[in-house]
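Appendix B, record 7
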Amino acid sequence: MNTKEIAKKIRTELKKMTGYKFSITTEYFSGGSAINVNVMKSPIRIIRNMSEIPEVTNTINYNRDQIAYMQSKTDHQLNEYQLQDEYNPKSWNNGIFITEEGHNALQKIVTICKEDHWSKSDSQIDYFNTNFYLHLNLGKWNKDFIDGE
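Structure tokens (predicted):
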């Protein structure tokens, strides 16, 4: 299956997630291809409120004001690999703290997206061989993510 066919399959599967809206696009470049999955709307709250974020976190060089600014943004790039781990309320995902329920929903989205994914990459020798890269985002740079309540 090529990247466009995989993206079509992902789109079909993600439509089954009631209350969510997604934007799914593909892109091709000299190093391969990517599937961009943007969660545009969620029926559940994914982004945590500042009052829910512990004072001591795993954010080494950021103060509370900087964290608050990042939490208030309306578009976020997420790290799909951090979603493979169990939920940790003291850890953030690429600059944003998410709820446990949001973490679980995003894990499900990544699982759907990775169903037809393969990788024979070996970063120790700088060798990358994958059928596509996955870019997971909340919102887009030009369209806000609508978080559930």
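Remarks on this record: Residues 3-138 form one domain. The beta strands are 21-29, 32-41, 76-78, 133-138.
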